[in-house]
Each structure stands twice: as C-alpha cells, then as structure tokens.
Amino acid sequence: MFAAVVSDHWAVLSPRVERLNTTCEAAHFGLWRLCKKSIFMTAEDPEGKGCGPISLPGEYNISAAAIAVFSLAFMMLGTLCLLGSFGRGRDYLLRPAGMFFAFAGLCIIISVEVMRQSVKRMIESDETIWIEYYYSWSFACACSAFILLFLSGVGLLLISMPHMPRNPWETCMDAEPEPVD
A single GO CC term, please (predicted)? Predict the structure, then answer.
C-alpha cells in the first residue's frame, strides 16, 4: 500500500495519435501529482497505447490523497496493535488491530474509486486532449492492498471473537470459563 500511495503511476493518459512525425502530450498521475511529457512520435506504438513511455516529474495534483493518508495511519495503528498483542495476556489487542486493518482497506478502496472517477471525468471532459487511458502498476498495488488489508482485518476480528458455547442450550453466562494459559 505504501508503494501505491507514494508513487504517481495510477493512470496513464494519452491522446489519439493520428499522424507520425508530430508531438503528442502524454501524462501519468497518482495521488500527489500529474506529470506531463511531450513526445515526438516517429513510429507507431506496437502496443497501441498511443503516446509512448512517460517518466518525468510534473506539477502537483491532490485528488484522493487525504483518504490514502488516513489509510496509511490506520494501517500503522493496526500494525502497532498487532505487534503489541504478541505479549503474554495481550490478545485483546487483536480486535482493534483487525478493525484498523479493515478500516485501512476500506479507505484505500475509497481512494481507488475516487481516482477512477477522476480519470473518467477527465477523459469525458471536452476540455482535455486525452482520450485513451489505462490503469498502471500503482493502481494495481492499491487494489491488492485493499484485498490484503480487508481480509486480514476480517481474519483478525474472527480470531479475536469470543468462543461460542459448545452446546446449543448453553449460554455464554452458563459456559465454564476457559483456563488462562
């Protein structure tokens, strides 16, 4: 998730290249900035992605960054709770760790959706030159982080749940206390 948040390759935008031996302006952006690059097109792109590779720094553009920062904070808090739960008799910290990881996953998927909607609005706008786009490796890292964080959060919550009674007629109050190791 950290790699997804700090990088700026969430989406790559390019205009339609209709003629060779001209320049085209391509861009890539992430949560923090939009990078533009003018590329002189001398040959057709064999992958059909339009306007060539991009790797220059550019201007700042904050779109879903605040939500991603909350996600990083939740992830760090969950990690601290998880590390703290390894001490003897501190397994009660698994529940907040699971909640923090689940919240971090939800925040990063909200950030992904905000970014996706931003790209969609930018492409559909009449004032932009970019008509083609694809999501890049940072976007895939954020989606993977959502899956891992959310599933680990739910898993930790399930592990930290109290044990169910063994007999259907037994209530939690009637159950014999489990021995503490």
Answer: L-type voltage-gated calcium channel complex
Domain extent listing, the chain: 1-42+58-160
Tens of pLDDT, residues 17-34: 666 656 677 777 777 777
Instruction: Supply the pTM of this predicted model.
Output: 0.69
pLDDT band per the 50, 70, 90 thresholds, residue 106? very high
Long-range contacts, 114-123 (Cβ 8 Å, 24+): 114/63, 114/64, 114/67, 115/10, 115/11, 115/31, 115/63, 115/64, 115/139, 118/63, 118/64, 119/10, 119/11, 119/13, 122/13, 123/13
pLDDT attached to residue 90 = 84
Distance between start and end Cα atoms, the chain: 36
Q: How far apart are CA 108 and CA 171, in angstroms?
A: 39
CATH class of the 1-42+58-160 domain in this structure: mainly alpha
Nearest to 118 by CA among 34, 44, 48, 39: 34
